[in-house]
Structures are given as structure tokens and as C-alpha cells.
Amino acid sequence: MPIREGRLIRRLKDRDEQAFREMVEEYRDRVFRLTYRMLGNREEAEDLAQEVFITIFKSIDSFRGDSKFSTWLYRVTANHCKNRIKYLARRHDRDRTELSERVEGGATGGSSMAAPRPVARPDAQLEGAQLEQILQQAIAELDEEQRILVILRDVEDLSYEEICAITELPDGTVKSRLHRARMALRKKLLKHM
Amino acid sequence: MSSPSPTSHHDEFEARFSDYLDGSLAAEEKRALEQHLESCAQCREGLTELRKTVSALSGLHQMAAPQNFDRDVTDAIHRRSSGRFFGRRALGDRVPFELLALLALALGLALYFFLRQSDTGSLKPFDREPDAPAIHEDAPNVVPRP
Against a cut of 0.80, is the pTM above it? Predict the structure, then answer.
């Protein structure tokens, strides 16, 4: 572990507020990017990124330095993301059930459900914000296990070694799942490329 | 033995596309894939599409956390813990109680033995007769004659 990182962790374990601020400043963008790419919603991502840092601070005593601090931070973030995705899916299902019950009961006038709107531009070369939107939507359609691998490897450019340490999966599993995820994205993006 | 169908042949090569793009394919497999690509338009197209997909992913906007993120997260901690999270913790919070108890016992024992060995220690045992005072022949007679 680098000396500077070791010192920061000792100060965090001493509940040093300044150390906490330094840690947030150093890692906030990486954590926020991961939560945003995993959830696809800015507000949810911001809220979850805050939860990640609070968890890190509360459980810093359990960090024994067996891995890099950033690896542990990414692992905590990934676990938070998976839990939030499950929670949001359950909430979405419950909302849909409640809405359909209300519709069947005649309580609403058949308003449109908030389904993701397909981006209409099938032929031209895509650029900028539009490509970003299409990609984000395609990522959101992957299951969360594939999603995390694509983001860590292809968006965040982490090494396979680090991804294995974060996900605690063997190298072969990471590579095969990532390949399947990439192929699925390729298929989804095919009509836009 | 029947030769593999064209589809399974393509699938076999397609399964190596990611490793090929990551540069982690073994030299022999890489050579075999490149040979196949020369003669297979379908796989060439598939690889190009996959390369574009990976390139698009790596080109995604590297967004930053919101401006007030640091303050918000620190405020959230203060709010939730009523200010108890931050602040240097007492020794007892950082060192396990068992270790402190063991340390105290060791110190107590060390102190006990030290005081026992010491000539001036209050724990010196009274098991020896005190030495008789020396009588010097030439000492002046301090007892007054009757």
C-alpha cells in the first residue's frame, strides 16, 4: 500500500474529518461515474454515491489493507449499486401493479406509462449526446452482473486483475461475461451504427 | 467424424473477439483468427462492429460528481450521527479491550516484582532480622555514670 494511502487510512480510522474530505475529493468522480452508469439516473446516482462514502467512513475499521483502497471502494460501490438496482426494480414492479390496479378500477384515464423512449435515428452516424443516450440505454438493459463488468473495463478502463479483485470473480468468468455483455451491446447498437 | 458446421465455426472465432481486441489472445490463436478473418467477411464485419462498440463505450463522457457533493456528504454524516462521527477517538475505541486488559495486567505484575526486589520498596518482606548495631571499642561512652 502506498505510504500516502496508508497515512490517509490511519487518519480515517481516527475519525479525522479533514481526511474524510480528502478521501471524498480524491474518489468522488470515480464513485459517481460508476453509480451513474449503473443506475442511469443522475439523482439516484448522487444519492447512492453519498451512501457509498458514508458506508466507507462507517466501516473503515474493517479495511485491513489486503487490497488497494480503491479496489475496496469500487467493491463497496458495486455492491451498493446492485442492491439499489434490485430495490428500484421491486419498487418499479410495485408501482406498475398499483397503477394497473388503479387503471382496472377506473381511477385514472389511461395515461401513458413511463417506458423508455426509443431514440429515433436509425440510419445516420451518431455522435455526442445522442450516442451517449443510446449507449446508456443499452447498458441499462444488461443484467447488473454484465453491466458492472462493461463499465469497469470499457468505460473506466480498469485492468482485468483489478476487476477480478473488485468483483471477486475468477479471470475466466470475468472475460466470458464481459464478452457476452459486449456482444449484447453490439447487437443493441447495430441499428444505430 | 463430421466437420463442424459453418455456424459453429464462426461462433468459435467470434468467442475470441474480445480477447483479440484486448490483446490478450495467445499468439497461436491470434494467428488462427487473423487467418480466418482474411477469408470470412461475416466475422470481419462482426469484429468491426464489436470494435466500434468498445470504442464507443470508452468514449463515453467522463462526468464529474456534482459541485456540492463534498459538502452534501459531510453534512449527511454530521446530520445522521449528530456530530459523533468525526473527532479523534479515545484509545479504548481503537485498541481492543482484551489487549488493554492484558497490558494493564503485565504492567501491574512488572511493578509488583520491581517493588519486591527493591531495597527501598514498600513491598520488601520482613523475613530477615535487622543487623545488630556495630559497637566500636573507641566510641565515647555516651551513657552517663550513675
Answer: no
Q: CA-based angle B80:B85:B88, to the nearest 5?
A: 165
Checking A2-8 for CB contacts under 8 A at 24+ apart, the result is A5/A68, A5/A69, A6/A65, A8/A69
Residue pairs spanning A and B at CB distance below 8 A: 107
Q: Is A90 exposed, middle or buried (0-12, 13-18, 19+ CB in 10 A)?
A: exposed
| SS3 at position A3 | helix
For the segment A30-43, what is each residue's pLDDT rounded down to a tens digit? 999 999 999 999 99
- Please report, as a single letter, which amino acid is at residue A15: R
pLDDT tens-place string over residues A42-96: 999 999 999 999 999 889 999 988 889 999 999 999 999 999 999 998 887 777 7
Instruction: Please report residues of B whose CB lies closer than 8 A to that of A57.
Output: 77, 85
